[in-house]
């Protein structure tokens, strides 16, 4: 990483979440926090931010919408989605459209979150040409694994929906047979 101290911006509508994140990352990076997606975009226009970590479910702006705008304003800034909900379609769409580097489920595991943010910062350094090719290969592999994992989740959900429909049809046909027999 370069000698510049990396800046991480956390966006969540819950102050207690922001306090926890600020405490977890203080001393490692310059930490910015806001409860507003619009304020986050303003901060991003005013200063260089390496990583934006946004909650998905916020009252005025969904996290994926914020991260899409972050990409437009600062394409090099890495984007992470923090969610306590299984909004799979939004997550899959965001990953597929390159809106996000990773998504992290609430409640997060501190070592995992620290590692993911560190990887994201390394990705920003790479985009700016300040790290070696070996790390580039590692990051490429991580990103490939993430996209592959999300595709597998989507396939699993589709299979479960199909399985559920077949069970429903089978149950309905059993009920029809019972009516015919009685």
Relevant terms:
182 residues; alpha/beta; Rossmann fold; 5-stranded parallel β-sheet; 6 helices
Q: Give me the strand/helix succession.
A: EHEHEHEHEHH
Give the number of DSSP strands: 5
Which whole number gives the mean pLDDT?
79
Strand order of the largest sheet: 2-1-3-4-5
In short:
The chain is of the alpha/beta class and 182 residues long. It has helices at residues 15-25, 37-46, 63-73, 88-96, 110-127, 133-181, and strands spanning 7-11, 30-34, 51-55, 78-83, 102-105.
Please describe what this structure looks like:
The chain is α/β, with parallel strands linked by helices and 182 residues long. It has one domain (7-144): 3-Layer(aba) Sandwich (Rossmann fold), CATH 3.40.50.2300. Helices cover 59% and strands 14% of the residues. It has helices spanning 15-25, 37-46, 63-73, 88-96, 110-127, 133-181; strands spanning 7-11, 30-34, 51-55, 78-83, 102-105. A 5-stranded parallel β-sheet has the order 2-1-3-4-5, sandwiched between helices. Helix 2 (37-46) runs parallel beside helix 3. The protein is globular and about 75 Å long. The model has no long low-confidence stretch (mean pLDDT 79).
Spell out the blueprint of helices and strands:
Elements (H helix, E strand, L loop, with lengths): L6 E5 L3 H11 L4 E5 L2 H10 L4 E5 L7 H11 L4 E6 L4 H9 L5 E4 L4 H18 L5 H49 L1
Parallel strand pairs: 1-2, 1-3, 3-4, 4-5
């Amino acid at each position: 990483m370069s000698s510049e101290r990396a800046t991480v911006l956390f966006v969540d509508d819950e102050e207690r979440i922001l306090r926890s994140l600020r405490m977890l990352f203080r001393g490692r990076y310059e930490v910015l926090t806001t409860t507003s997606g619009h304020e986050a975009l303003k901060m991003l226009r005013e200063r260089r931010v390496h990583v934006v970590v946004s909650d998905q479910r916020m009252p005025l702006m969904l996290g994926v919408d914020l991260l899409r705008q972050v990409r437009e304003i600062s394409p090099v800034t890495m984007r992470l989605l923090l969610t306590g909900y299984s909004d799979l379609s939004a997550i899959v769409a965001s990953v597929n459209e390159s809106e996000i580097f990773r998504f992290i489920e609430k409640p997060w595991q501190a070592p995992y979150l620290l590692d993911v943010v560190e990887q994201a910062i390394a990705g920003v350094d790479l985009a700016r040409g300040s790290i070696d090719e070996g790390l580039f290969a590692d990051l490429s592999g991580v990103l490939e694994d993430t996209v592959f994992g999300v595709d597998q989740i989507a396939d699993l959900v589709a299979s479960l929906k199909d399985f559920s429909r077949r069970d429903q049809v089978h149950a309905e046909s059993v009920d029809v047979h019972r009516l015919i027999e009685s």
